[in-house]
Specification:
Arc Repressor Mutant, subunit A; single chain; mainly alpha; 2 domains; Rna Polymerase Sigma Factor, Chain: A; about 200 residues
């Protein structure tokens, strides 16, 4: 009971959700604007398919809308939101998969990027190499990494979201970061050796 009381005072997002449950549509709009980008990137990097990411992303917001009357503040709003996202991903991966070639294409360069084609190409190559390294992570490691880096959740919040212990989450995150570092270091070493030839 003390935790719920503490959360009620400190979690502004939960307060917005409760206001939305009482009919304040502007509260939902503020929640949506605050969390939409990180949540979308979470799905995009999990499934690497823009169309699928958009579909799963919309499913989360539909569930939030549908749950407004039954919402109870048992954890931080972000933990609750990403728990919904996690469950939607689990449901998706449990369904029989149909092979597609719809890989996410590189995002366009922002207007304020350097106009030098070599700089643009170099940046795109680095982004693509990092995405390739993310693909090498296990699904569990990728999910934990994205929840930490994209959604900004704490280890405790990630543990609640995916239903694992904090120690398991720490381990997955540690191995994900180690694997990414090793892969990127090996790739840089290979580039340096090839460049010296």
């Amino acid at each position: 009971m003390a935790l719920v009381s503490f959360l009620a005072k400190t979690d502004k997002d939960s307060q917005l959700m409760l206001a939305y449950a009482k009919g304040d549509s502007s509260a939902f709009e503020r929640l949506y604007l605050k969390h939409k980008d990180a949540l979308y990137r979470f799905f995009l990097r999990q499934c690497e398919n823009q169309g699928l990411a958009e579909e799963l992303y919309q499913d989360v917001w539909l569930r939030v809308i549908n749950a407004r009357d039954s919402y109870e503040q048992k954890a931080k709003f972000t933990t609750w939101l990403y728990r919904i996202a996690h469950n939607i991903l689990i449901d998706y991966y449990r369904k029989p998969q149909v092979e597609t070639d719809d890989k996410f294409e590189a995002e366009s360069i922002p207007d304020n990027a350097a106009n030098d084609p070599e700089v643009i190409l170099s940046g795109q190559e680095k982004i693509q190499r990092f995405r390739t390294q993310l693909e090498n992570l296990s699904k569990e490691q990728l999910e934990v990494f994205l929840l930490k880096e994209e959604a900004g959740l704490s280890l405790e919040e990630i543990a609640l979201t995916v239903g694992e212990s904090k120690e398991t989450i720490k381990s997955r995150l540690r191995y994900a970061i180690k694997k990414l570092r090793q892969s990127l270091e090996n790739e840089n070493l290979t580039e340096n050796v090839i460049g010296d030839l």
